[in-house]
Amino acid sequence: MLFTSQRGTLPDTAANTAKYQDEVSRAAAYLLKVQAAELEAMADFVSTLPASEMTAPRRTGLQQVRLGINEMITSVILMVRSPGLNPANRDILLGALADNAAVMAASTPRADRAALVAQTEAILPALAGAEHEKALAFKSAFENGECGVLCTLETK
Known about the structure:
This protein has helices at residues 13-19, 21-48, 56-81, 87-106, 110-123, 129-144. By secondary structure, the chain is mainly α.
């Protein structure tokens, strides 16, 4: 997305996203899988961490990582909304969202969950069949999924 053939010029991210959408879609799907694994590891770490070792800098760092992952989820949902995205790439992205939704939802605070549900609701009318089902599975995980140790990080 950040490619430019002219040194010193800003990339045309919209054109690059359209031109390289196969690569961008697969990379984003893979990144969601990696981030889900990262959230699982973070949750394991936090659940075994003695309360006395949950320092303010550690909590802030965990919150920042979690926020970055939420921003990635949001960007994937926005990519799904793109009218220029071909159906195969839309399916790849929706599959990655659905496959990793339970882990991601368990790590997401309630307010952020509501925002992700609203973003998902915005794309539902444009989806049909298996794509619609994947989006509904993602939405359901964020509406009904457990709230794990990272979800409640602010209250601990």
